[in-house]
Amino acid sequence: MEYLLNFFDEHQARRIKVVENTLTNRRTVSNLFWAQQYGLLRWTGAYRRLNREQFEKALQNFANQGFLQLANDQVKLTSKGVVEQEELREHCYQPSFYSWYWLANVNKIEERLLLAVQVLSELTHHQRRYVPVSSSTYQLQWIRNWLYRELRRTPQLNQELLKELMIVGESLSPGR
């Protein structure tokens, strides 16, 4: 949860609830306004599964380490926190597609991608009995419909998917 330091500032105390609501995609007028003021709007929905208890525990841990100052439901970065924040930015992956978080449910896309890869793999190996990685009936039906539609259009769908995944993998490699 170290990346949470990125959402705080040394010059501006930030309300804890605004940061949490922004990351979990709770979009109210007030929250969107303050997220804009804090420069966090691009992170809307970036961590939809953030648990309030985990979040508060992480903040308390940062405060105990001297990275954050907690007061009246607000958080301010300390000078020690600024140094840690800069180190994290150098060593941790920084997403370059911020605006996608609020447009798409990344968790749903991830679930569908994993299921699609599994289904195509099982289909390629003529395996009809398997346990799907997703238990969501909606996602299973969505993938089934997608598969029937795409297989008619692209008979070699598994090779197309492999090419696409290779392109994604190459674009994420550290040498680029």
Q: Tell me the number of helical segments per DSSP (H or I, 4 or more residues long).
A: 8
Which architecture of the largest domain does the CATH hierarchy give at level 2?
A: Orthogonal Bundle
Q: Can you tell me the number of structural domains?
A: 2
Tell me what portion of residues adopts beta-strand conformation.
5-15%
pLDDT averaged over residues:
87
Organism: Limosilactobacillus frumenti DSM 13145
Protein name: Helicase Helix-turn-helix domain-containing protein
Structure, explained:
The structure is a single chain. With about 180 residues, this protein is mainly α. The chain has two domains: about 1-100, Arc Repressor Mutant, subunit A, CATH 1.10.10; about 105-170, no CATH class. It is built from eight helices and three strands, in the order βαααββααααα. The protein has helices at about 15-25, 30-40, 50-65, 80-90, 100-105, 105-125, 135-155, 155-170; strands spanning about 15, 70, 75. Strands 1-3-2 form a three-stranded antiparallel β-sheet. α1 packs across α2. The chain is elongated and about 60 Å long. The model has no long low-confidence stretch (mean pLDDT about 85).
Task: Please tag this protein with its features.
3 strands, 176 residues, Arc Repressor Mutant, subunit A, single chain, mainly alpha, 8 helices, 2 domains, 6% strand, 3-stranded antiparallel sheet
